[in-house]
Amino acid sequence: MDSRVLLEVRDLHTQIVTRRGVVKAVNGVSLTLHEGEVLGLVGESGSGKTMTALSILRVLPYAGRTTSGQVFYRGRDLLKMRISDLRRIRGKEISMVMQNASSALDPVMRIGAQVVEAITAHDTSSRRDAERQAVQTLGDMGLPDPERMMRQYPYQLSGGMAQRVVLAMAVALRPSVLIADEPTSGLDVTLQAEILSRLQQLQQESRTAVLLITHDIGVVSVMAQRVAVIYAGSIVEEGEVRHVLDYPLHPYTWSLLRAVPRIDNSDQRLEPIKGMPPDLTSLPDQCPFLPRCPKAVTVCRLDSRPSLDRVDMDGHRAACYNPVRHDQRLA
Ligand SMILES: Nc1ncnc2c1ncn2[C@@H]1O[C@H](COP(=O)(O)OP(=O)(O)O)[C@@H](O)[C@H]1O
Ligand SMILES: [Mg+2]
């Protein structure tokens, strides 16, 4: 794998002002995406995955604000860049598939016109070339009869087809980075597998680096080489997918893996994670997982939140004072 860093998020903090108070949605997220790799960002609903993605491209909702941190893309901080410069990067070099993106397709515009527009917004190619490219990309995403689809309207498509259309729009210009927020959530398993394999094929051909956001560890294990686990808006563990899933260090990751069924472990007993996710309007100074942690020790109660420290030679890291030991394999 090429190890050149393409996108680096450093200590990102994002808040959302609500009537209930200030929601600390992102609390010091750091991520590194290398050229050509797929990095999974996994965590439960509400853990700050979407807010992290929206912060990176500065497309937060009105009440949201990034208060500190850096997002380097090829050495330039996107958070400091002029918006006009950032617009040239968005969609062309870094593209994003938003969560529930297919519902954002324009209902009164034909599919072809929408895909062509996504291409010509950044590309100087002629309309005819853009149309050819659109048909090609729709076909690449496994859509049957793409020429006919170009003339259809969004309501004529199934959910799975619409999702492929938005993915096609995102990859049409062969971006260096694709941020895909739950690209297959809500689709049935067979369709999900089909779409993921198309995405994987495109990713490998064009060497696009992907930040794949999902609550589904199964998706991560199929698609990603590395994974970052997010809890209460911070990364609690990061490493090679096989290391993290087979030998999780953080008790949260360990609990998360025990809460989902695994095909390779038929006699596994599922155990939901005890307790409630933290209230992001009043986070304690300590580790956010402390109230639910089965392995908490005195230092966890006394000290402030542990940092994401390097634990072994392969860069497997966990933000934990008392990580799960490697000899305690997952039962
Ligand atoms: N538009 C919004 N207004 C207020 N709070 C929000 C909004 N969007 C998200 N949040 C809150 O921010 C936190 C992180 O949300 P999000 O990033 O969407 O989580 P995820 O994508 O991991 O499910 C959650 O507590 C969520 O309730
Ligand atoms: Mg989300």
Ligands: adenosine-5'-diphosphate, magnesium ion
Evaluate the radius of gyration: 20 Å
Structural class: alpha/beta
> Roughly what percent helix?
25-40%
* Number of distinct helices: 11
Can you tell me the CATH class of the domain at 5-85 and 210-318? Alpha Beta
* Morphology call: globular
Distance between the termini: 31 Å
- Total strands: the figure is 12
Query: What is the N-to-C succession of helices and strands?
Result: EEEHEEHEHHHHEHEHEEHHHEE
Features:
alpha/beta; 331 residues; 31% helix; 23% strand; eight-stranded mixed β-sheet; 12 strands; binds adenosine-5'-diphosphate; four-stranded antiparallel β-sheet; Rossmann fold; binds magnesium ion
List the helices and strands and how they pair.
Elements (H helix, E strand, L loop, with lengths): L4 E14 L2 E14 L3 E5 L6 H8 L7 E10 L2 E2 L5 H7 L4 E4 L13 H10 L6 H14 L5 H5 L8 H13 L5 E5 L7 H18 L2 E6 L2 H7 L2 E6 L2 E7 H6 L4 H9 L38 H5 L6 E2 L6 E2 L13
Parallel strand pairs: 3-8, 3-9, 6-7, 7-8
Antiparallel strand pairs: 1-2, 1-4, 4-5, 9-10, 10-12, 11-12
Helix pairs in contact: 3-4, 3-6, 4-6, 6-7
The structure holds adenosine-5'-diphosphate (ADP) and magnesium ion.
Magnesium ion (MG) binds next to α1.
